[in-house]
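Lab notebook, bench 4. The sequencing result for the construct came back, and we need a structural model before the next group meeting so we can plan mutations. Quick request posted to the team channel:

Model the 3D structure of this chain.
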Amino acid sequence: MYSTTRYSPGSAFLGLAAMFALGCDDSTGPAAGSTGAIRVNVSTTSAKIDLDPDGYSLAIDGGSSQSIAPTASVTIPGLSRGTHLVQVDGLQPNCAVVGDNPRSVDLGSEGTADTPVLVSFAVYCVANTGSVRVTVETSGLDPDPDGYVVSVDNAGPSVPIAVNGSQVITGARVGERRVG
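Done. Here's the predicted structure in C-alpha cell form:
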C-alpha cells in the first residue's frame, strides 16, 4: 500500500508561521534587541564662575566624539550589547572629572532608547586666574620720579609701580600673558 500526502501552499505557510512563533521568545521585550542606549549626564561645579566656555567632548569606546555642554545630558542610542567605555574629554586645565574617566557601562539586556542606562560625570573647576609678580629695576642718571604703571594684557586698570620695586597683579587668566 501506498500512502499519499497532499501538499498545499497554505499548509506550508501555517507550518512556517508556527515554527517562527515557537522560535521567538518575546518575554524580555525590547531590551533583548541587538542595540541599546546610554544616557550621559555631566554636571559641572566651580569655586568661581570659571566654567569651561566651549564645553567638553564625549566619546564611547574611544571612537569619534561629540560635544556636550558643561552641565547637560545626552542619550547615545544604537550601541551594541556588551560593555562600553564612556569618557569625557576636552576639559580646560582648571577643570577635572571627579572619579573614574573613562567609566565602564554594561549594556546587557538593559538600556533601550526609551530607558537608557545612566552614567553620570561630575566635573569640578577651580578659579581660572592667578597672579603675576612684576619687578622693575631702573638704572641711569635720571629715573622717572613718579615711577611707572604696569598692566597685564592691556586689560583692566594699570597698576603703579616704583622705579625700583615690585608689584603683584592678581586676577590674571591662567596661561601665557603679556605684561607692559
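Residues 12 and 104 are 48 Å apart (CA to CA).
Will bring this to the meeting.
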